[in-house]
Design a protein that fits this description.
Layout (H helix, E strand, L loop, with lengths): L1 E5 L6 E8 L21 E2 L3 E3 L4 E3 L4 E6 L8 E10 L9 E8 L4 E7 L8 E4 L4 E2 L7 E8 L4 E6 L2 E6 L6 E9 L10 E11 L3 E12 L2 E9 L3 E6 L6 E7 L3 E4 L8 E6 L5
Parallel strand pairs: 1-22
Antiparallel strand pairs: 2-16, 3-6, 4-5, 6-15, 7-12, 7-16, 8-9, 8-15, 9-10, 10-11, 12-13, 13-14, 17-18, 18-21, 19-20, 19-22
Amino acid sequence: MVALLLAGSPTCEADSVFADDFDYVDGISLSGQNPTVGGAWSGGGGWKTDGGAVYLSAGSDSVFGNFTAALSAGQKLTLTFETQAIPGFLGSSWAVVSLFDADGYERCYIGDPGGPNTTWGLGGYIANVATGDSSQANVAVFTYEYDTGAWTFSTGGGTYQGTGTAGYALSRIRIASGGTSDEPAGNMKIDRISATIEQLGPASLKVTAFTRISSDAFKIYWSGGDGTNDIEESTDLENWMPILTDVSSPQVIPVDTEDQPKRFFRVVEPAAP
């Protein structure tokens, strides 16, 4: 008898790179204040604090905050922010939270895109989504994977996902609003905002085929892992011995069913040195 087993999936951890609950004295400019995590806010003085939140007090304005680290290879960013109801949000003018990359380019924006769409939206170079969700008091969550461009976007109205351009080293956040000569600037009231970066582990190991190629050999195919894995064998499922190390898929396994009628195989990540 020949059987095949597979090791479990790796785990991942996330680090906070920006966070602010806006727990400041009421009525002061957000610009110049220090968030819980990340660089001090900078920009115009229009965004003011109020009751543990921040809103646009007058005119069109922007404030920026820098992450403690930029998104890079093998990582996923998660941006979360919560809004309260306020006049001027989800109207004909715009008010958004944006993500900028290390080169200073805006790569996506989330919130009220303005124009004829008066619901939550996601726009920019990564994806464009009109949600149909018109709830001002909401929680928005956006994720983006550096390597693949895979993204998700959710509000209380639902979740959207897809794949956009990969490789954006997102490193800066902006809260901004604007309008036209005929319309006042949009508004947004945010009572918390955070960004985390998660170091993704390799994709889960998955055997895709295990076929006999001769009377005394099998070929095993697998995907996932870190690209090079070990193949181990056992006769009792308790004691395992490596037979191939640091190999990639596929591999041929010789089998002598007469001499060893019962053998088990598994594909595993290499043991730590």
